[in-house]
């Protein structure tokens, strides 16, 4: 078998036993695959662990599936709802728009707005040509006339651009004027570049308007034999208010628009006010037309709303405060939120299906590498049935989904302190470039990616996946080491996902005596944080099984839970930073970036928070005096000696990758006990930037005591409690030696105590006197 | 520093970066010893001596185009060396034909390529 590849995704990430789920599949080189439902037990293939383990599960969908190659429409644009073809302009007209080109020298044609069919050469459009210049074009049956500006458009500068076309004289006049101020553009007024251009000329043609051509903003209709209709000539950058007049506007009228004066009221065909429809709790995908016909435009692949506009004065930094200054919509030709492939299979899951992580395993041929796909989804019980719940941090999986930092981020090797190990799958994902990026990546124009989604293939959310920059599993493959430990020791447990926490809040957690987090529950919406906090405060027992948790905000829309939004700020670890004025999420209006500056550091919730991170080698923990205190000595019962976790699948120890520490100035509950702490981390491990005021020589593992993992315990109201292990690598230490090791012993002590109702061990020993053995 | 005929870059900072890099390479070459190479072979991921750490910091900071990496052929069994393209959509190119039995040894292979490039620069 030759070049065979299989990719797939589900329509839902979290389902209950008995629910229906759809599988969307695209293949290369084969028209059929062998499908088998599997329950995922363990992922990491490290030879010191149990290896990859899956259990085949009977289901109606098992067997041969007919599959095909699917087309993915990548890129953002707005499609105007124009059922009466009001924009099939026949007479004179003007197209105008405020734009801030994001990549004018991309070398590819970009459409700002128009009703253009690139396949037949019919219609009209205003855009940026292959040479980076403003261009107006119109066509009749493949014959095309063009008018091109004299001056190139400059990167990230705001302009008012327009074309006025007189249908009687066939004279077209371009209008290109810079509208930059001291805040809104890359360059200020001291950079006296030639921004203006006003060429005019008589064209030979008029446009032919085909009935089926859509009016698009930031793209144009195209067609190919392989894909059928699609949208191409996609635009990079921002577009603010824009519109169409049914006559040729004069230069003075356009000057007035560029000066921010009221728009001419006569002969308006469409006037999209990109700043309308905002609420304090977010902005949708609909762009409102204030013209007489209500030709509203709908975003595809989520153009980014709430961006600073052409008239931003810098006084406010959030679209909620002065929406009229935040009319910028940002477009990227490589953005993807939903592949929208047809379903290859729909399946009603058996009601008896045990809660767990499942995958539809698809294989072609020998089923190795790209010829095998695990389409992962998470199954909750029809009704909560266990005393323990494990929450898979799917928001964090989405934040990292399809990250390409080892290929694209020049700092990645420095941050991780090691050379990357890439796989065939990583290379293919990078080469194809059609399954979208992660919120750690940048678009090709250098702007950070704010949206991720699970309605697309996510190879790094598969069970065996190893993160290239670390050469250890992260995310799902790491978290399976914890659930495999639960399986091995026979604990009955249900699983939940972040999506369930966001949707149901405390109700999702309340049925359980004990809840375990994943190894890196980093990204949390406000509802998710509230759910965990309320659960603990109302008597829940929570085991924070990792580090770098509860650090960063994210947003979901209720109607599209598959898409996650991130904004990155100057006060967190980041691979890019949102521009000023663009640090609030369009999804829900919340401040993007870390939770700490909003008064919710992780220490306040679970006792510890991010202290540092690195890679290459993990260390062990040494017991601290509190492990001998009668209130907490039961946690280390059965542990011989002082050392905990000196083995592990993640760089050879239980303390590694990301580390969390106790810090009472950040809200660690005062009665928290430190059971054990790691140390001896290499200088690849750097102090968390969020707790650093200056950068200086010495903020590294061998120099700074904050670079450590603290294993902590505190009691909460109503018999609640929190045990936190302090390191991402802790979970991956559990499978070593056939799941029999002292890291696991500690976890078992805690878990066994936490599932018992009533008082916790050590409850009586709350006095600080004479409680030391 | 006098202008070079070959200098046509729009980004004038490039000139300084190249000068800084040149001085840095001259110094780093003096740190390459059999002991440093042996130290990396023994412990590519541990706490390192200052000479080795300085070399590694430099290697990790190299630009993405032609930056060395490891490609896994069979997990935990076979690895090869590659160089990144630095251009999205373009796969890394193979470097040499040596197959390494462990990721650790392959990472040392990357280190040796960097050492060779440094000494030849």
Task: Characterise the protein shown here.
The complex is a heterodimer of chains A (773) and B (121). Chain A is built from 13 helices and 45 strands. Chain A has 773 residues and is mainly beta. Chain A has a 16-stranded antiparallel beta sheet that branches. The longest helix of chain A has 13 residues, at 476-488. Chain B has one domain. A three-stranded antiparallel beta sheet of chain B has the order 1-2-3, covered by helices on one side. In chain B, a hairpin with a 3-residue loop joins β1 and β2 (78-83). The mean pLDDT of chain B is 94. Classes of the chains: A mainly beta (773), B alpha+beta (121). The interface between A and B is large, with 37 and 35 residues.
In short:
The complex is a heterodimer of chains A (773) and B (121). Chain A has 773 residues and is mainly beta.
- Quaternary status of these chains? heterodimer
Structural class of the helix and strand makeup of chain A? mainly beta
**Whole-number average pLDDT of chain B?**
94
Low-confidence stretches of chain A: none
Number of domain modules of chain B: 1
User: How many domain units of chain A?
Assistant: 3
> Which term fits the overall shape of chain A?
elongated
How big is the Rg of chain A? 28 Å
Describe this protein with a few key phrases.
heterodimer, A: 773 residues, mainly beta, Immunoglobulin-like, Jelly Rolls, 3 domains, 16-stranded antiparallel sheet, 45 strands, B: 121 residues, alpha+beta
Secondary structure: elements and pairs:
The complex is a heterodimer of chains A (773) and B (121).
Chain A (H helix, E strand, L loop, with lengths): L4 E6 L3 E3 L3 E9 L3 E11 L10 E4 L6 E4 L10 E4 L12 E9 L8 E8 L4 E7 L4 E8 L2 E10 L6 E8 L4 E8 L21 E3 L13 E2 L2 E5 L3 E5 L4 E9 L5 H8 L9 E6 L12 E4 L7 E4 L3 E4 L20 E4 L11 E6 L7 E8 L8 E9 L7 E5 L1 H7 L4 H4 L3 H5 L4 E2 L1 H9 L18 E3 L22 H13 L4 E5 H7 L1 H4 L4 E3 L6 E2 L1 H12 L3 E4 L7 E2 L1 E3 L2 E6 L36 H5 L1 E6 L7 E3 L19 E2 L13 E5 L10 E6 L7 E2 L22 E7 L3 E5 L5 H4 L2 H4 L2 H13 L19
Parallel strand pairs in A: 2-27, 28-31, 28-32, 32-34, 33-35, 34-45
Antiparallel strand pairs in A: 1-3, 3-25, 4-5, 4-6, 4-26, 7-16, 7-22, 8-13, 8-19, 9-10, 9-16, 10-11, 11-12, 13-14, 14-15, 17-18, 19-20, 19-24, 20-21, 21-22, 23-24, 26-27, 30-37, 36-37, 38-41, 38-43, 39-40, 39-42, 42-44, 44-45
Chain B lengths: L12 H17 L4 H9 L7 H11 L7 E7 L3 E6 L9 E8 L2 H18 L1
Antiparallel strand pairs in B: 1-2, 2-3
């Amino acid at each position: 078998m030759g070049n065979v590849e299989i990719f797939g995704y589900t329509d839902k990430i979290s389902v209950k036993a008995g629910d229906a789920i759809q599988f969307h599949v695209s293949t290369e080189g084969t028209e059929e695959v062998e499908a088998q439902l599997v329950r995922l037990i363990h992922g990491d293939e490290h030879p010191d662990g149990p290896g990859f383990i899956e259990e085949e599960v009977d289901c109606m969908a098992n067997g041969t599936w007919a599959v095909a190659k699917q087309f993915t429409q990548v890129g953002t644009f707005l499609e105007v709802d124009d059922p009466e073809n009001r924009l099939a302009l026949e007479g004179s007209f003007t197209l105008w728009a405020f734009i801030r080109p994001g990549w004018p020298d991309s070398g590819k044609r970009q459409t700002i707005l128009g009703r253009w069919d690139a396949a037949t050469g019919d219609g009209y459009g205003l855009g940026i040509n292959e040479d980076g210049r403003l261009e107006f074009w119109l066509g009749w049956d493949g014959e095309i006339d063009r008018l091109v500006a004299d001056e190139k458009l400059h990167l990230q500068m705001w302009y008012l651009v327009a074309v006025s076309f007189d249908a009687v004289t066939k004279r077209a006049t371009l209008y290109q004027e810079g509208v930059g101020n001291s805040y809104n553009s890359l360059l200020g007024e001291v950079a006296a570049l030639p921004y203006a251009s006003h060429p005019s000329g008589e064209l030979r043609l008029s446009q032919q308007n085909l009935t089926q051509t859509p009016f698009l903003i930031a793209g144009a209709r195209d067609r190919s034999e392989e894909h059928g209709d699609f949208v191409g000539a996609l635009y990079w950058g921002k577009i603010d208010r824009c519109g169409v007049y049914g006559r040729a506007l004069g230069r003075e009228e356009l000057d007035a628009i560029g000066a921010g004066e009221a728009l001419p009221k006569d002969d308006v065909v469409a006037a999209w006010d990109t700043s309308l429809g905002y609420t304090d709790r977010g902005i949708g995908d609909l762009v409102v037309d204030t013209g007489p016909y209500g030709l509203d435009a709908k975003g595809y692949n989520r153009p980014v709303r709430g961006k600073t506009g052409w008239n931003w004065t810098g006084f406010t930094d959030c679209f909620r405060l002065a929406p009229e200054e935040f009319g910028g919509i940002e477009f990227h030709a490589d953005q993807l939120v939903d592949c929208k492939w047809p379903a290859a299979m729909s399946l009603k899951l058996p009601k008896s299906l045990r809660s767990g992580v499942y995958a539809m395993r698809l294989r072609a041929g020998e089923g190795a590498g790209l010829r095998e796909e695990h389409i992962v989804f998470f199954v909750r019980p029809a009704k909560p049935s266990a005393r323990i719940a494990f929450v898979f941090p799917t928001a964090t999986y989405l934040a990292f989904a399809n990250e390409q930092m080892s290929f694209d981020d020049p700092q990645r090797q420095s941050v991780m302190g090691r050379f990357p190990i890439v796989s065939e799958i990583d290379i293919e994902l990078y080469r194809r470039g059609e399954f979208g990026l992660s919120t750690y990546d940048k678009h090709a124009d250098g702007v950070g990616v704010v949206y991720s989604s699970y309605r697309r293939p996510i190879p790094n959310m598969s069970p065996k996946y190893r993160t290239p920059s670390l050469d250890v599993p992260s995310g799902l493959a790491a978290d399976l080491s914890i659930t495999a430990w639960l399986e091995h020791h026979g604990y009955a447990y249900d699983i939940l996902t972040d999506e369930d926490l966001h949707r149901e809040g405390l109700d999702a957690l309340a049925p359980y005596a004990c809840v375990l987090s994943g190894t890196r529950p980093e990204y949390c919406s406000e509802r998710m944080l509230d759910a965990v906090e309320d659960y603990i405060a109302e008597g829940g027992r929570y085991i924070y099984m990792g580090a770098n948790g509860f650090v960063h905000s994210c947003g979901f829309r209720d109607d599209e839970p598959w898409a996650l939004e991130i904004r990155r700020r100057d006060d967190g670890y980041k691979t890019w930073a949102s521009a000023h004025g663009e640090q609030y999420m369009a999804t829900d209006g919340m401040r993007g970036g870390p939770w700490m500056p909003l008064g919710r550091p992780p220490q306040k919730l679970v006792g510890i928070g991010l202290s540092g991170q690195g890679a290459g080698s993990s260390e062990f923990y040494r017991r601290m005096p509190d492990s001998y205190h009668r209130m907490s000595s039961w946690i280390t019962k059965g542990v011989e000696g002082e050392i905990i976790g000196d083995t592990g699948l993640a760089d050879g120890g239980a303390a590694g990758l990301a580390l969390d520490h106790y810090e009472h100035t950040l809200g660690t509950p005062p009665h928290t006990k430190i059971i054990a702490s790691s140390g001896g981390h290499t200088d690849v491990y750097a102090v968390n930037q969020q707790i650093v005021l200056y950068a200086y020589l010495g903020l590294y593992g061998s120099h700074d005591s904050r670079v450590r993992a603290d294993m902590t315990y505190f009691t909460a109201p109503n018999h609640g409690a929190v045990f936190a292990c302090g390191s991402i690598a802790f979970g991956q230490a559990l499978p070593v030696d056939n799941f029999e090791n002292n890291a696991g012993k500690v976890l078992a002590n805690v878990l066994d105590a936490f599932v018992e109702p009533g008082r916790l061990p050590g409850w009586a020993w709350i006095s600080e006197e004479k409680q030391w053995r | 520093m006098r202008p070079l005929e070959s200098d046509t870059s729009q980004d004038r900072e490039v000139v300084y970066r190249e000068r800084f890099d040149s001085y840095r390479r001259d110094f780093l070459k003096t740190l390459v010893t059999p002991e440093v190479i042996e130290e990396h072979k023994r412990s590519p991921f541990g706490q390192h001596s200052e000479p080795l750490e300085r070399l590694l910091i430099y290697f990790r900071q190299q630009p993405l185009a032609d930056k060395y990496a490891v490609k896994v052929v069979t997990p935990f069994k076979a690895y090869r060396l590659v160089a990144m393209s630095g251009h999205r959509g373009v796969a890394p190119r193979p470097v040499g034909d040596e197959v390494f039995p462990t990721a650790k040894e392959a990472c040392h292979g990357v280190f040796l390529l960097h050492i060779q490039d440094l000494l030849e620069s």
